[in-house]
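User: I'm preparing a small set of examples for a lab meeting where we compare how different chains pack in three dimensions. I only have the primary sequence for this one, and I'd like the structure in token form so I can line it up with the others. Please keep the answer compact; I'll paste it straight into my notes.
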Amino acid sequence: MKINSNIQAMITNNVLSRNETELSKASEKLSSGYRINSAKDNPAGMAITNRMNSQIKSLNKANQNSKNAKNAIATAEGALSEIQNMVQRMTELAVKASNGTNTSADRAAIQKEVDALKDEIKRVAGETEYNTQNLLNGEQGLRGYSDNQAVDVTLYNSSFTKGTYNIKIYEDADGKMTLDGFAGKDYKFEDNVVTVTDKMGGELKFSYDDTATLPIEAELNLMGTGGMHIQVGSSEGQEIQIVIPEISLENMGINTLDMSTEEDAQKAMDQLQGALSFISSVRSQLGAYENRLESTISNLDVSTENLTGSYSTIKDTDMAEEMVEYTKLQVLVQAGTSMLTQANEQPQQALQLLQ
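Assistant: Understood. Below is the structure token output for the 355-residue chain.
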């Protein structure tokens, strides 16, 4: 029996200290709801969950980006719907002006309404915005560049084959305007505008200075730059390019509408049909973008859900399991405290030997 070194008390105190430490950890997990509260709890798990948490937040933001883009497209599509209605109204006026019962004064009145509608189309196209960004004036279209000031790229879509094209505009032996540089593609001249199309739906429009000396040679740079880039993922390059071509009277082919005679009204009808086809094509493309973004949003929702589940498996506390552990540790701490009291009483018993 010793009084200088109470070995039993030391052992009991060490066990009690370990149990108190574990009880403190269990209390922290229960109060925070997390199994991992610091790096010492699980170094590898902490690193994994930090990356997962960052990715979850990025996916949530990408989801919001997609929804914003969908709203922007809906705004553009709504404006195009009104423009299409105006073009249809002009078609009705062209049919009316083609009728031989109309006088010159009647056609002049019709022309005034057509001019007013054209002005309104330009206003809507120039003022349709989303978050201060214009949607229809060409800012969201693909940009093409020419090394010759006599040639200006006005429009091309994403289906047109990317690359650089060396073109030549000249008159053939019969005096017919001819274009070289687009092998395998169809083209047509209309006034000073050239439209190039292919079988895959690609379309390019460019104008040239009809006062310039022929032949005109130029290098066109069509590399698919421009448009609105929507970040739909958490990594670089995970984006969707939304292209909205410029909605202008020139691109619709109705900048020179004239209904002063029956012949001009007949020609205007053909021009307006082309304008309707152009608007319908743009609206169809916007609808395809909306459908794609809806699929993207659904995919992001599923990815976020699955990733959050994995994050929870590693990071979150199983409350039922942890409560069992907490209760057990509480009992052990109480038992340790009681035993430490008993162990500390043993040196008192040695005093009885000195009586």
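A couple of notes for your slides: Residues 1-33+317-355 form one domain. The radius of gyration is 38 Å.

User: Perfect, thanks.
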